[in-house]
Design brief:
Rossmann fold, 4-stranded mixed β-sheet, 13 strands, 6-stranded parallel β-sheet, single chain, alpha/beta, 496 residues, 23 helices
């Protein structure tokens, strides 16, 4: 069974480990810089880019306000075109539907289109437990699967790997599960892609069941849409006799007119292309053409919880373009594994707590703090998700969720600060104590000859205890020897 994110440590611990890997940081810096430059070039070509962002956000917000109506319309349209619609409240229910379809057709393997929803519900692991192999056919997902690895990016799951590492994975693992890599394989990207094509071709040709997600679901026509760059998705969507699509309920759009907006925004924001090389659409069953049995699993798995959050529901606008990851200074330095989820980066930092709820586990509660709140993610988001505002709101929710019981060090510190700032007398006493501490630190620095200064102010080294978490990564200036209150009194408000 492949690895999962279960049991991942909180973000600070995972990030610290990632920061210690220079190869990972080099791979990430190169990849994100390249994608950012491509995106910026094609976005600049669109005169009304901001208008498109506003329109996309408005479409999504309207859909979310009337989600029940659009989903019922989608179900009606799909059913009229021969598809079987299933409603899944949880990840387990969604995986069970796919497994049941596979068992009904007596297969022990399925081929998969790249899908965040199926990763979210851990479909591969669920199928493996029942003796059914799920083969990833996207090149990056194939690399992750063969390497018994975890995805680290929404668009490019193997972004943390370089070409030499990929070649080694192919040479070592391909032969164990199918056609082996060529003996003369090099790390040239074209040769690596060729090896993947040859390896996957036999799986495409023998597969009876295909599994996909969907980038969009058009309610009025019952059309599902997958956009991709390689053509593997087209193979999975057309060759098998049976197709099962797992679709998040937030992926619905009312009409083809609305879809047009997103097909302009998505490729530019994700791959830096004017349009996707492959845009596949299908509506139920077409006799004699493509799969003759189609199932659509409409997945909730916490989306209703997110919808109920008045601030956070905007996260359900997300079209999984990954633009926020590629501009995020935190993601660029830590990579996606540190977020402990198939949804990494800024969108993962809000989407995971919204889907799962806060106050239940330390890993999820750490994610809203995995940000500098610089706002680059909002500027890049094609559907204008105000990620910094949602992060701040989620931080408040995390604090509120832990108010009962024994207060932690942070809560005690905040209570002490509130008590100090709530009284002029206590604040004056604290200022006097701070000034004494500043003089003492200066004296020790002179004796020990440890005199680090920035802008004329001496810096404190590593603090002990809880303060170490701050000074491990930041410079802390010494307290001033004279407070503003004391200066004001001494100078009569600056008069002399």
């Amino acid at each position: 069974m492949s690895r999962t994110f279960l049991g991942m440590p909180p973000f600070p611990a995972a990030a610290r480990e990632a920061l210690a890997d220079p190869q990972l940081r080099s791979n990430l810096a190169h990849a994100t810089t390249t994608i950012r430059a491509k995106r910026a070039a094609v976005v600049a070509e669109v005169d009304d880019w901001e208008s498109l962002r506003l329109r996309a956000a408005a479409i999504k917000d309207d859909v979310l306000l009337h989600l029940d109506e659009h989903l019922l319309r989608l179900e009606e349209s799909l059913t009229a075109r021969g598809a079987v619609v299933h409603w899944a409240r949880t990840a387990e229910e969604a995986s069970a539907v796919v497994a049941e379809v596979a068992r009904a057709h007596g297969v022990d393997e399925v081929v998969k289109v790249k899908s965040m929803a199926t990763q979210e519900v851990e479909l591969n692991e669920h199928l493996a437990a029942q003796g059914i192999s799920a083969w990833e056919t996207d090149l990056a997902e194939l690399i992750v699967q063969l390497g018994d690895d975890l995805p680290s990016h929404i668009l490019v799951p193997a972004i943390h790997r370089n070409r030499a590492e990929i070649r080694a994975i192919f040479e070592r693992e391909m032969g164990r599960v199918g056609r082996p890599a060529p003996d003369d394989l090099t790390d040239d990207p074209a040769r690596l892609a060729e090896a993947a094509r040859l390896h996957l071709r036999e799986k495409f040709l023998r597969a009876k069941v295909g599994v996909s997600g969907a980038n969009f679901a058009v309610a009025d026509s019952g059309t599902l849409v997958v956009v991709e760059s390689e053509g593997n998705g087209r193979m999975c969507l057309t060759l098998p006799e049976v197709l099962v699509s797992v679709v998040g309920i937030e992926k619905v759009v009312p009409s083809w007119t609305d879809l047009d907006v997103f097909l302009t925004l998505l490729p530019r924001s994700s791959t830096g292309e004017r349009m996707n090389p492959y845009t596949s659409t299908w509506s139920g069953v077409t006799p004699g053409d493509g799969p003759q049995e189609v199932h659509v699993v409409l997945l909730d798995n916490g989306r209703s919880r997110a919808l109920a959050d008045e601030v956070g529901r905007q996260a359900l606008r997300c079209i999984r373009c990954s633009a926020c990851l590629n501009v995020c200074p935190v993601y660029e330095r830590t990579g996606g594994h540190a977020y402990g989820s198939v949804y990494p980066g800024p969108i993962g930092a809000i989407l995971n707590p919204l889907l799962k709820g806060v106050g239940h586990d330390e890993q999820t509660d750490s994610l809203p703090y995995a940000s500098t709140l610089c706002g680059a993610c909002f500027e890049a988001c094609p559907v204008r998700i105000d990620i910094p505002s949602v992060l701040v709101d989620l931080r408040a929710q995390v604090v509120d969720a832990h108010r009962s019981g024994v207060p932690g060090p942070e809560a005690l510190a905040m209570r002490a600060a509130a008590a100090t700032f709530g009284s002029g007398r206590r604040l004056a006493a604290a200022e006097r104590a701070s000034a004494l501490a500043g003089r003492a630190i200066d004296a020790v620095a002179r004796i020990t000859h440890r005199d680090r200064r920035v802008g004329g102010r001496r810096l404190i080294g590593r603090l002990p205890g809880p303060g170490a978490g701050w000074t491990d990564a930041r410079d802390l200036p010494t307290p001033p020897e004279e407070s503003f209150r004391a200066w004001w009194k001494r100078t009569d408000g600056g008069a002399r």
